[in-house]
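Support reply, case 0932

Customer input (verbatim):
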Amino acid sequence: RADQLLMTLMYWREYRTEFHIAQSYGISEATVCRTIHKVEDALVRSKQFRLPGKKALQPSDTIFEVMLVDVSEQPVERPKKAGKALQWQKEGHTQKAQLIADQKTAEIVTTAFSHGSKHDFQLFKDQKLDIAEHIRILADAGYQGLAELHENCQTPFKKSKYHPLTKKEKQRNRALARKRILIEHIFRKLKVFRILSERYRNRRKRFALRFNLIAAIYNSDLN
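Our regenerated output:
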């Protein structure tokens, strides 16, 4: 139903509490929760809100030439159970979402998720991607060592205490940053949905589902 879909989009976009949405609709908080879950599950089953996925990067299937990869961190509620492997920063615990997007079309191809303490490059390795050799991957400094997995890649030069960057290396870093700025714009558009930008209050088990649905909606707007 249209009103149930609108309620779900309102929840993602505004990220008001289920209590406040229930007050607006004149229903119970539990009904709001059930409705949102029902709509999300229906959207997944429809198969119309899917990302191309990891297979689209494989040698036999890919049509891509240059891919951008980056990670965004989002604060989450402090876990109730002790020992949760979530990164503690000044703003609190975090979770990570990684995007791989096509530089030419700005289409999101695949995603990956983890707790905040996992290194960006480790998250990439854990995806176990079979990427076609001709695809060039552009990444930031968090992906140092990427060439060991995929030779056709570019990451920034890093300076050290005894080895400052040369003028040519600085120029190449700036050129790479200009190419990679697109993925920052993609994250910015996704975070219009406040459920992806504010402190995530819900259980993390549905976060990937919601993120991917919103990413698929973003992709559909590109056409």
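We compared this against your earlier run and they match. Two observations from our side: The longest strand covers residues 92-102. Confidence is low (pLDDT under 50) at residues 84-91. Please reopen the case if you see a mismatch on your end.
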